Amino acid sequence: MRPETSALDHVDFTVKPGERVALVGPSGAGKTTVFAMLLRFYDADSGKLEIDGVPVNEADLHALRSRFAVVPQETALFADTVAANIAYGAEEASRAEIEEAAKAAFAHDFIVALPQGYDTVLGEGGVTLSGGSAPAHRHRAAVLRNAPILLLDEATSALDASSETLVQKALDKVMEGRTTLVIAHRLSTVVGADRILVFDHGHLAEEGTHQTLLRKGGIYARLAELQFAPDAAE
């Protein structure tokens, strides 16, 4: 802990309803802190953070968090049925709603092929699932949780290329009509974002679209060159 050092400093941005905004930058740059503050795991020592004009530190905590659907980096599956895992956080959901969520996430066919379909009991941590199935399970729950703001934290990390393509397709469906903030180190997943915020050492260093940031030749351009050169300039 270093209380004399701010995790975020002079960070000022606004996200419009329905906008898709990506947060990128080196590890430790402050991206995850933004998510933690939105969910009120931390409160700001100074400045203000508002959602729909309401300061988050004045909002009812349950009401605040109910506005978010979160797809975390780590997969969290329980020793329960597939249906129960999908409905986690939305326990009042009907079987029809659960199945619709799975269909929206392109998972229905995979699930009905399991021994007991939606009633198949998963092992602790999802050990009965293979390949990209366990990580992809996070996105089905996000579909079911019909919240207006979607937070994606490295949502396609730890996936192989084929699984990433399928999951990205599902995420595109999940993001429809929602305000979405995406943390990503893999820039290929955010090139189509409406806006990209580039963080560096707790500062908002750059802001723009993929193409405008490439032309600036700054931090984002250097990251892009490392990740997909020689195609970064296309």
Structure description:
The structure is a single chain. The chain is an alpha/beta fold and 234 residues long. It has 2 domains: 1-67 and 147-234, Rossmann fold (3-Layer(aba) Sandwich); 78-146, 3-Layer(aba) Sandwich (Rossmann fold). The chain has 9 helices and 8 strands. Strand 7 and strand 8 form a beta hairpin.
Strand adjacency order, main sheet: 4-5-6-1-7-8
CATH class of the largest domain: Alpha Beta
Helix content: 25-40%
Estimate the global geometry from the Cα principal axes. Answer: globular
Name of the CATH homologous superfamily of the largest domain: P-loop containing nucleotide triphosphate hydrolases
Order of helices and strands: EHEEHEHHHHEHEEEHH
Give the N-to-C terminal Cα separation.
Answer: 42 Å
Class by SSE composition: alpha/beta
List the main descriptive attributes of the protein structure presented here:
15% strand; Rossmann fold; six-stranded mixed sheet; alpha/beta; two-stranded antiparallel sheet; 234 residues; 9 helices
Write the layout of secondary structure elements.
Layout: E1 20-24, H1 31-38, E2 50-51, E3 54-55, H2 61-65, E4 68-71, H3 82-86, H4 95-104, H5 108-112, H6 133-144, E5 149-153, H7 161-175, E6 179-183, E7 195-200, E8 203-208, H8 210-216, H9 219-228
Helix pairs in contact: 4-6, 6-7, 8-9
In brief:
This protein is of the alpha/beta class. The chain is built from nine helices and eight strands.
